[in-house]
Amino acid sequence: MPQRSTFFYLLVLILCSLTLVLSCNGSGSPLSPALDPDGSHSASDGPNTGISETDSGDSAYVPPRYEDDGLPWAPDQVLITLDPQYTANISPGQIPPAQVLELLDRHGVAFEYVIDAIWANVYVLKITDGMTPPEKVTELLALPFVDIAEPNIKYEFCDVPYVPNDPFWEKDDDGDDDPRTSVFEQWGPAMIGAPVLWNDSVVGQDIIVCVMDSGIQVWHEDIENVMWINEDEIPDNGIDDDSNQRIDDIYGWDMTENDNDITEYSGTYYYHGTACAGVIAAEQDNELGCSGIAPGSKIMGIKIGFGYALLTDITQGVAYAYQNGAQIISMSFSTETFSSILKNSFDGAWGHGMLSVASAGNYDSPDTEYPAGYSSVMSVGGTSPFFKRWNYQPIDEVRISEDNGFDWGSSYGASLEIMAYGENYITTHGGNDHKYWDGANDLFFRGTSNACPMVSGAFALLWSMHPEQDNEWLRNRLRYTADDLYTPGWDDQSGWGRINVLRACYGPDRYSGEEDEYGAVDLTAHDNNVFDSIHAALGDYTDTIDVYKITADQDGALNFYLDIWAWGEDLDLILYRDPSLDPSSIIDQSAVENHATNSYEIVGTECVEGETYYVAVTPADFGDSSGYTLTAEYVEPFLD
């Protein structure tokens, strides 16, 4: 290409500036390409019309899709933003001035479409001269009016592909009404305390969670009634009723095909998006399937591809979620490539009060993955359940890694913020309207893809209980109330720990408002059965002793049972005769260490009607942290 003189570029910049000034008087280019009003039909029928390529009402523009060729970016696209000094008079969604387009054309790229990305206009360009995206990025960054230039980066979904289980894995329904004792029951929500919140009618009500993924089987029996509905649209009338430049976007939008059909069709990456939606909000009390962590929340679907997603789709998805009222974005995908465009999009979403949650990745590596690595996004790693996947042997909770006997590993490192479960999870499957990842045929949902929507569901519960709080408070609350797994506080193996929604929602001492002058809570007022947590950590959420009392209403014997939810976290149970908790008044204490083979402690005493007994739950060591159940029960015969 012939070299241009400095004078030539100066002349172009002067002309560009003149065009920018003229554009503010209404004579500039229109907002995002106009809508094609024809050809609408329902999601169940297949793709619908969307945004047209130009403002003339031509055929609908559909961004190109690419085969998964192993490249980390789309082969012939780059994205740019303009330097702020040249954008003062450009409206959101407006295409670049003609002089900029001409200069871009001279540099071997053609304008395709614009993304109104909350914080700036992002221009998607097609490479026309055969250069690779990295080469073209280097060339475009040399232009004085270009601020950011990046390839159209690919993001991989973060589940672990299905691997058949060991023959020992079979249904183990022991009839004890405790889902934590069987892999074939929903142990996940129980281990983080969600059922306690459900009992208090905290179910994530009025919270909109955007699942940005490979689509959602919106007709699934456990999903159809929890989908977000765009009430400003009249279904299937082929009209953009809410003037958001998307026709009949009832449940969300497909950014890959630019239409309203977000259905996750057969063969789309193991029905990844439907699984994530079910983890968050699968319908509760419908006598079908499973329950989501926040079954009262609503799922907005943003379809961004299958197998991988492109930067353009994600950027548009973030903007759509913000523009349509989503409060939380759940993203089970990642790439090792940093993007300024996407960072700015999530920074913009954070600045508007949203919470963004992303998988840390399944690479057993300290290398940062994105979008989880952006400071405005919560990075989620995966911890083990209470047994190893292959041999059904109980283990203490740890970060999933090959060193701990798993066939994959959760990424970790400096950007890791929080943990949730990443193995053997039951959730919805999009294969048909009543299919589940339930262990049948050795299928469970796995990976940090599972951990991410667990955290999104936890946020929905927390936000519905504390609607007056902002995103910064909510994020810090989930961090600092997490169950420590390694070094107390933050560490690079587990971040702040594994989510504990009971402690996050109620605070470190759930019953503090009921304590008497000695700090004891009456167990009788709770039917001799309480659910709380111990958190021996630094900071405002420390809780190192919970004391309960019971006045015997009969002669006989009393047992106190402590069930600790997180294996590997040691709590102690001590029974006192005196409210001062003087060691000389100890009646009984447990010396059991609470690990994978035993999560229970028991203390007991012969009791006399009218006498009061005090039981304390404390950590064995600094850093021990877990939710627990404490139950008092009259028993026969008397204890020895």
Task: Summarize the structure in short.
The protein has helices at 6-27, 98-106, 133-141, 187-192, 194-199, 272-281, 311-323, 340-351, 448-465, 471-480, 501-506, and strands at residues 73-82, 109-116, 121-127, 146-157, 208-213, 252-254, 298-303, 305-306, 308-310, 328-331, 333-334, 355-359, 377-383, 418-421, 427-429, 435-437, 520-522, 529-535, 546-551, 556-564, 571-576, 586-589, 600-607, 612-619, 625-634. The chain is α/β, with parallel strands linked by helices.
Describe what this molecule looks like in 3D.
The protein has 640 residues and is α/β, with parallel strands linked by helices. 19% of the residues lie in helices and 23% in strands. It is built from eleven helices and 25 strands. The strands form five sheets. Strands 1, 2, 3, 4, 8, 9 and 11 form a seven-stranded antiparallel beta sheet that branches. A seven-stranded parallel beta sheet has the order 6-7-5-10-12-13-14, with helices on both faces. A hairpin with a 5-residue loop joins strand 15 and strand 16. Helix 6 runs parallel beside helix 9 (448-465) and helix 7 (311-323) packs parallel to helix 8 (340-351). The radius of gyration is 28 Å and the shape is elongated.
